[in-house]
Amino acid sequence: MINCIVVDDEPLARQLIVSYIEQMPDLHCLGSYPTAVEAFTALHQHRVEVIFIDIEMPGISGLNFIKSLKTHPKVIFITAYTEYAVEAFEIEATDYLVKPVMFERFLKAVQKVGLNKNESQRINQPTAEITNIFLKVDKKLVKINLSSIIYIEGLGDYVKVHTPNHTYVSYMALGKLEALLPNYEFIRIHRSIIINKHLIQYIEGNFVRIADIDLPIGLTYKANLFKSVE
How far is CA 63 from the centre of its chain? Predict the structure, then answer.
């Protein structure tokens, strides 16, 4: 088990990374902190092996904080800015993630931490796949169980996620959300539609019936759809 902490002055950003960590079988989050000062205390109270840290924060920046340490755990910077990447890698950062961080990118960063062979295999197994996603809806991060999703619509820069009891609207491109979804559960059937394959009732002509709803199949997606359900 690898002990880690999260440092970011933005509450939603902290919550998102903690939620990703909770889905990893070999990571244990000891705590999340809004300032480097609080993180400093945690580093002296616990054996911390990985720190996920923002760069631009009130008081001391993430970069300066790491530089101030005589020795430091492995560091994964998480920031909205790209211009600090060179400086980050000069202090031997393990990885540098740019917000918003997708789970797929987070997973790649974690695999660079240096897990042993057995741990790496466990991460690549289906048991490590996410069962929930967190979407930003009305300034909140909402946890949505993947199995509850019927289908997803892309509406320009937004997506509408349809579940039996609620429809969630989030500011995110459909392609970015598609990258978060396991392809053994979801498939894109149209340039603006992704469906839950387990809920397909039947396919007829250029339509899929799912949860008593008929959804159109795009011509370029038809062959892949039939292949996935064979």
Answer: 23
0.85 surpassed by pTM: no
DSSP assignment string, 76-136: EEEES-STTHHHHHHTT-SEEEESSPPHHHHHHHHHTS---HHHHHHHHSGGGS-SEEEEE
Distance, in Å, from the CA atom of 60 to the CA atom of 214, rounded to the nearest integer, reads 55
Number of Cα atoms under 13 Å in the Cβ half of residue 152: 31
Rounded to 5 degrees, what are φ and ψ at 54?
Answer: -75, 165
Task: Tell me the pairing of strands 95-98 and 158-162.
Answer: unpaired
Domains and CATH numbers, the chain: 2-128 (3.40.50.2300), 147-229 (2.40.50.1020)
**Cis peptide before 100, with omega less than 30 degrees from 0?**
yes
Residue 165, Ramachandran bin (φ over 0: left; ψ between -120 and 50: alpha; else beta): alpha
**Residue pLDDT, tens place only, 37-61:** 889 988 888 889 999 999 999 889 9
- State which amino acid sits at residue 197: K
Retrieve residue 75's tokens: 């560091």
